[in-house]
Amino acid sequence: MNRLKSLLWLFLLLFTMASAAQNKSKLIRVVVFNEKNLPFENVTVQLLSAKNVLVKSGRTDKKGTVLFSEPVKGNYYFLAKVIGYENGKSIQIKSPFVLNTINIKILPSSQVLKDVVVEGKKPPIQHIQGKIVINVDAGITNTGVSVLELLEKSPGVMVDKDGAISLQGKPNVLVMIDGKPTYLSGGELTNLLAGMNSSQVNQIELMTNPSAKYDASGNGGIINIKTKKLNQDGFNGSVSIVGGWSRDYKNNNGLLLNFKKGKLNAFAAANFNIGNSFTDIYANRNYLDQNKNTTAVLEQNTAIANLMRYKFLKAGVDFYASKTTTIGFSASGTLINRDGKSDAVAMWKKPNGVLDSAISTVSNSFYKLKNGAANLNFKQLIGKNHELSVDVDLLRYNMNNNQQFTNRLILANSYTQGTDIQSPSNLKIFSAKADYTIRLGKNNTLESGFKSSSITTDNKADFISINGLIRTPDLNRSNHFKYKENINALYTSFEHKTSKFNAQIGMRFENTDYDANQLGNSAKPDSSFSRSYANLFPSGYLSYQADSLNMFTLTASRRIDRPPYQKLNPFTFIINKYTIQRGNPYILPQNSWNLELSHRYNQLLTTTVSYSVINNYFSQLFLSEGSDILIYTDGNVGKMKNLGLSASLQISPLKWWLVNGQGNFNYKQLDGYQNVNYQSSVNQFQFNLSNQFTITKTLNAELSGFYITKARNDLQELLYPTGQISGAISKSIFKGKGSLKFNARDIFFTQAMEGLTDFPQAQEYFKLTRDSRLFFLSFSYRFGKPLKLPKRSTGSANEEMKRAGS
After folding, report:
1. Which residue of 17, 47, 252, 789 lies most exposed, with the fewest beta carbons within 10 A?
2. How many whole angstroms separate alpha carbon 407 and alpha carbon 419?
3. Can you list the alpha helix ranges (DSSP code H) found in 112-164?
4. Which of 368, 364, 363, 194 is nearest to 276 (CA)?
């Protein structure tokens, strides 16, 4: 508590100093006028060096004005840009500035553009206040991969062997799609992200310390996946076809359509992906006595093959009822089918390596996920300074995961035993939220809102034991689990912006209630449990623009992770004959404090120091049952401390060569109790590098890769180093409307996942090899014709830009 008070006092002190010093720097005012010599609002104005290097950008206010702080000595000019108008350019001026005001006039385009002309490429990675933005199409090596594979190669993101995602070394990340939580976790989230293709995604936002406006879930922060949506006048569309090969063929197809005219904007998207995949697993488990001597060895080889089919359809409409009112509706559906087959051999050996016995396990799985979602949104501008937005979402997931296991002893007197599991489940979600924004003068914004969500799940698992031709219900392992959760939240935040200092402070309140019921049968009784708790989550940032190139930012937040309902369900899942997984109804929420200090030099270099403490830390637990069966479960084990250092560099050594690199160092210390007191730590380093080459105006290439040293997310499991190198080439065709791309992922087939797990009186080395080496050929094409842009007054121009989301 004393530490928290000190942090808040420091924050308030810095905020006071910021307000006192805000008027000391010299400013230059840029005023933009339209063809009628009226001030032009919402125009993007860029400050560029004489060598056309972007220094800073801003957007004009209602008076057509934007302020810039004086840059370092040198020659500069200003460029004004807005849709439907020719670019306006100022004269070249020298810093220190003699002038206090620069006027720029821009005129409508003289003719209708036949195609959308992109004047500059989006950089692959952008650092924006509070987040890192990954522009997916700007990286050629992103072509064809799944969203899960896309996250693997994103800066600061790590995906472990189970599909769990961590950000900047911190586990438990809230994954959102288009600003809305998926409400999935574990294997279900992995299946969804593995089914989605990168061709569906426009941007990925990485937020380590989100503001109070966002859900407090996710100790590691938030990953927001923004899907593609066209928003041009007239009828427009794009189509993409991707064919790939690893051991087997893969195919991804996508279609985007959009029609915008007058007050109506209608859009649709469709995707169909199909692909085979494989995973080879090797595990060597040594059983130990009290003196750490090996008493037995279990060696397991498993080959898993999957066929996944992914279908997605989304359609919606935006209606601009007036200049101040917008109503939108969208509906989407997802269907995932995954058929899997696994062949495993478990060999028991004596300490000297002599084979004792062997068991073969053949399993078949049939997984199906159906998702339907509907969204209704409303936005109302109230006067000049008030805005109300409302979102209502309905989601439903239906999942079936049916499995068949057959175990056969490989001996002369062999036996055959099996298990058949039928596990249907459904998930219903209702969510409603409202946000109200008040602009207090030019520099202050007050934002408040509420959110209420309700989640209901019904999960069944029927076990049938098979012994030869005899099938017997296994009532001890069969399960019927019902769960209902309600989360209600209120938040408020205040933001203050000046030319030198920006600051925001916010508070979020969340109340959580859940009830769970495990229904019994003739072999075991009912059981139920419930919990109710409330939390406050402060957050905020303070940034200082030292000059036109340097910015310093301090952020702080408190966050929470609630245990997923799947892990609360005390249900047993068979991994193999000697390894099972079980839920834990006694897991408590984990919470964290996060502090981050960063410095950004233009978009060239960003350095960050961060520190976080997680209490009631979630970790995998490994228990023994009998003499040979080990149980995976989850629980609270204690505390995790994470000290992080990161540096991100974007530089162009030559005109045709762009380099993006990011390095992350984390020192993690875990303290917990699991039968005995555990203490573990790791020095973890992750490095991402991307090289982009402009060969000709229509030909580009990319070489990228990442490397992760030893890492640790769980108390008892150490991950060994891994990484990959990828390369791609892109050719623009059909006068820029189309493109051909070839992508080779994990060229040297180095992205294996291996590590060492400490069990109670056992130790296991494991290695997972997947079809990470992939080769893709893709074709994409844009079609359609925009409507003619009429000459507009300032008001109509503003309206168009609001519709375009500018």
Report:
1. 17
2. 9
3. 147-152
4. 194
Report how far apart, in Å, the C-alpha atoms of 307 and of each of 246, 337, 406 are: 13, 8, 20
Asked if residue 48 belongs to a domain, the reply is no
* SS3 state of residue 413: coil
Query: Could you tell me the CATH number of the domain that includes residue 291?
Result: 2.40.170.20
Name the strand (E) or helix (H) holding 779: strand 774-785
- Closest Cα partner for 518 from 451, 582, 598, 442? 582
Asked whether residue 93 is assigned to any structural domain, the reply reads: no
| φ/ψ (deg, to 5) at 566 | -60, -35
Q: Which residue range forms the structural domain that includes residue 641?
A: 125-519+544-563+572-787
Residue in the block written with tokens 């809305």: 180
Q: Which is it for the CA torsion 203, 208, 213, 219, positive or negative?
A: positive
Give this prediction's pTM.
0.81
Do 82 and 106 contact (CB within 8 A), yes or no? yes
Judge whether 67 lies within some domain: no
Integer Cα distance of 286 and 349 in angstroms? 10
**Residues present in the chain in total:** 806
pLDDT tens sequence across 7-57: 444 444 444 444 444 334 467 889 999 888 888 988 889 888 887 778 888
- Give the single-character DSSP code of 799: H
As a whole number of angstroms, the distance between CA 806 and CA 798 comes to 9
Cβ neighbors of 178 (< 8 A, separation 6 or more) are: 224, 225, 226, 227
**CB half-sphere exposure, 697, CA atoms < 13 A:** 5
Of 762, 582, 758, 583, residue with least CA distance to 678: 758
Contact 207, 221 (CB under 8 A): yes
3-class SS letters over 348-411: EECCCCCEEEEEEEEEEEEEEEEEEEEEEEEEEEECCCEEEEEEEEEEEEEEEEEEEEEEEECC
Query: What number of other Cβ atoms are within 10 A of residue 352's Cβ?
Result: 7
- Contact (Cβ atoms closer than 8 angstroms) between residue 44 and residue 54: no
Amino acid at 700: N
The answer to whether residue 726 sits within a structural domain is yes
Task: Read off the tokens for 148.
Answer: 């899960």
If you ran DSSP here, which 8-state letter would residue 217 be given? Answer: B
| Distance from C-alpha of 239 to C-alpha of 539, rounded to nearest angstrom | 42
In contact, 461 and 571? CB cutoff 8 Å: yes
Q: Report yes or no: 80 and 88 within 8 Å, Cβ to Cβ.
A: yes
Q: Six-digit token pair at 397?
A: 């997931």
Mind listing the pLDDT tens digit for each residue in 257-288?
A: 999 998 999 999 999 999 999 999 999 999 88
Distance CA 72, CA 134 (A): 29
Query: Where is mean pLDDT largest: 93-97, 360-364, 537-541, 649-653?
Result: 537-541
Q: How many domains does the chain have?
A: 1
> Is there a cis peptide before residue 96, judged by omega within 30 degrees of 0?
yes
Residue 527 contacts by C-beta under 8 Å, 6 or more apart in sequence? 517, 518, 520, 570, 585
Mean pLDDT, the chain, integer = 86
